[in-house]
Amino acid sequence: MIRVLIERHIAESLESAYEERSRKVLQQAVSAPGFISGETLVDRHDPNHRITLANWRSEADWDRWFHSEERRGLMSELVPMMDQEEAITVLEQSAI
């Protein structure tokens, strides 16, 4: 299993529109092969900073979703609402 950390920063005053559309992205990811679970968090000190932590069966499953036409289409609605590019980090459990 891998975890994918996705960080996004929303432009001022677009929070509610972003929430609505980002929910669609997560709903579609849930049905993607290899998706296990996910949650979205809000930075307590910066309400426009959002972090999604998603668990995927494998990096291949994540890559398939990441490069899918479906995700690209959904992201085309989100990207204009962000004032920074999304940052994605793929994580795996430490051997320690």
Automatic annotation (TrEMBL):
Any signal peptide, and if so, which residues? none
Q: For the ABM domain, which residue ranges apply?
A: 2-91
Q: Read off the SUPFAM superfamilies from this record.
A: Dimeric alpha+beta barrel (SSF54909)
Which residues are in coiled coils?
none
The record's InterPro entries line, in alphabetical order, gives:
ABM_dom, Dimeric_a/b-barrel
Print the keywords alphabetically: Monooxygenase, Oxidoreductase
Q: Name one GO molecular function term.
A: monooxygenase activity
Which domain of life does this protein belong to? Bacteria
Q: What's the protein here called?
A: Antibiotic biosynthesis monooxygenase
